[in-house]
Design goal:
The structure is a single chain. Helices cover 34% and strands 22% of the residues. The chain starts with 15 loop residues before the first helix and ends in a 7-residue tail after the last strand. The chain has helices at residues 16-24, 39-50, 87-97, 108-123, 132-138; strands spanning 31-32, 35-36, 59-60, 62-66, 69-73, 98-107, 143-144, 147-153. The strands form 3 sheets. Strands 2-4-5 form a 3-stranded mixed beta sheet, covered by helices on one side. Strands 6-8-7 form a 3-stranded antiparallel beta sheet. The chain has a two-stranded parallel sheet with strand order 1-3. The chain has 160 residues and is α/β, with parallel strands linked by helices.
């Protein structure tokens, strides 16, 4: 079975931040690779993508020009620690995509699946789903053996 892939180029004009966000929220776009004129613009786009629900659905790599070379800007730092991903990534994810809700909880399997989709889309790296409980513990995020305690997904974020 063949699948059709179409690659399109879009010129980013005035506001790279808004235009990239518009592209990643289109349902038929699977991957976006903007090339920004400078690192500051690339960093602004990256900061907003870390907390945007589109990061759960669309693969993104951001590039910028520096001294005549094209460089890739990490949206979420890939870990250099003995853990499979940087603890800051887990904290950013939980803060951006969950909210405090007494009596609610998010199961570890669901959390691990959503975190892994987000992390893979923004870094190209993947983590083993069994690591989520350990990472929550390392980050001192309230959880039990089943998942996040007193938290639910923010509006607009739903696991599949």
């Amino acid at each position: 079975m063949e699948t059709e892939t179409t690659v399109e180029n879009h010129a980013i004009n005035r506001d790279a931040h808004e235009e990239v966000l518009a592209l990643v929220t289109e349902s038929d776009i699977e991957r976006v690779e903007p090339c920004c004129l400078d690192m500051l613009t690339a960093a602004t786009v990256a900061d907003s993508l870390k907390t945007h629900p589109a990061g759960l659905e669309t693969e993104v790599r951001i590039h910028y020009a520096e001294y005549g070379l094209l460089r890739q800007l990490p949206i979420v730092e890939v870990s250099r620690s003995p853990h499979p991903c940087d603890e800051r990534a887990v904290e950013q994810f939980v803060e951006a995509f969950t909210t405090s809700t007494a009596g609610e909880s998010i199961r570890n399997a669901e959390l691990a699946d959503m975190f892994n989709r987000w992390y893979r889309n923004l870094t190209g790296e993947s983590i083993a789903l069994t690591w989520i409980g350990r990472l929550l513990s390392i980050c001192d995020i309230e959880s039990d053996r089943h998942g996040l305690v007193d938290r639910t997904w923010v509006t607009g974020v739903r696991p599949e």
